[in-house]
Specification:
This protein has twelve helices and two strands, in the order αααααααββααααα. The chain is mainly α and about 300 residues long. Helix 4 crosses helix 10 and helix 11 packs antiparallel against helix 12.
Length: about 300
């Protein structure tokens, strides 16, 4: 028991050290001054974040065994897939508010830090609820299945930007907002008065978008494992890679026309997996294979279809 606790503490410490080091390197050295992220840089950082997740998964394998390692990788893939919708929201928000490319990285950096804090609270609360009320997992299953079903049949025009939500309209109407960006500042003083910039509104919108998507993705990982350590680390590694994936894939996202259907099927599959757990518990390896297969098919079909239409 003590050995397991010691290994878990070492993993927590290693996880924290990797995250703090890379984030400090990212903002403190590489992006100290606001600038546009190049495709080469975005691809490099995407590889780094995926590589860190794989190395951390190997550490879990040796220190905690194959089952937690498999759960981590499955949760990581599910979270990464469900977070793709965030990338489309980022693109919409930056277009709506006219955020220049040089400032987009700063918004997403601070947005990720806020997302980490929110996910931590949700995961701790979810773990406590499941520990004391195990039946709540079945509510998660029903919620995910219904959400996936609604997403499958929702029309594209029904989707709205987080900037159109009542809370953000209230923020714009009740906070003094400057008419233009002031470099990379979120708050400035104009004529002796503190005002927020449009960049601050974009940041709040990014945080709000992540909160909405977290209501799907966090319960989905609890369907794979109820271990808070595995849930949190797989969740956070996926979030940390989102910025790089956005800059690497923003020109490709318009071609993923069938991805919505793949994500909806993943949600419904995970919901059904939870509901059948008491009758026929699906192995984690099966969940990983089905999730990967659905995403591979929908992404490939999207790229082939848009390639034919462009031709």
């Amino acid at each position: 028991m003590d050995g397991t606790m010691d290994s878990t503490m070492w993993l927590w410490g290693g996880f924290g050290a990797v995250i703090v080091t890379l984030l400090a390197l990212d903002l403190g050295i590489l992006h100290r001054k606001a600038r546009a992220v190049t495709m080469r840089e975005a691809l490099t950082w995407s590889v780094i974040w995926v590589g860190c997740a794989i190395l951390f998964n190997i550490a879990i394998f040796f220190w905690r065994g194959p089952q937690p390692a498999l759960e981590f990788m499955t949760g990581y893939l599910i979270e990464l897939a469900l977070s793709v919708d965030n990338l489309f929201v980022f693109m919409i928000l930056f277009g709506q508010f006219g955020v220049p490319p040089a400032l987009q990285h700063r918004v997403l950096f601070w947005g990720v830090l806020g997302a980490i804090a929110m996910r931590a609270v949700m995961i701790v609360a979810g773990a406590a609820l499941i520990t004391n009320f195990h039946w709540i997992l079945y509510l998660f299953g029903v919620f995910l299945a219904i959400t996936g079903f609604k997403m499958l049949f929702a029309k594209d025009e029904e989707a709205t930007s987080p900037a159109d939500q009542p809370f953000l309209r209230w923020v714009r109407n009740h906070l003094p907002v400057t008419n233009e960006h002031h470099g990379d500042a979120f708050v400035v003083r104009v004529n002796g008065r503190s005002m927020v910039t449009p960049l601050f509104i974009v940041l709040i919108s990014v945080e709000f978008a992540d909160l909405m998507f977290a209501t799907d993705s966090v319960p989905a990982i609890f369907a794979v494992t109820t271990d808070p350590f595995v849930v949190f680390t797989s969740n956070i590694f996926a979030i940390l890679g989102l910025r790089s994936f956005y800059f690497a894939l923003r020109d490709l996202m318009a071609r993923l026309k069938y991805l919505k259907y793949g994500l909806s099927l993943v949600l419904m599959f995970i919901g059904v997996k939870i509901l059948l757990a008491g009758v026929y518990p699906l192995p984690v390896a099966v969940a990983l294979g089905v999730t990967f297969g659905i995403l591979a098919v929908t992404v490939t079909a999207s790229l082939l279809a848009t390639r034919r239409s462009e031709a």
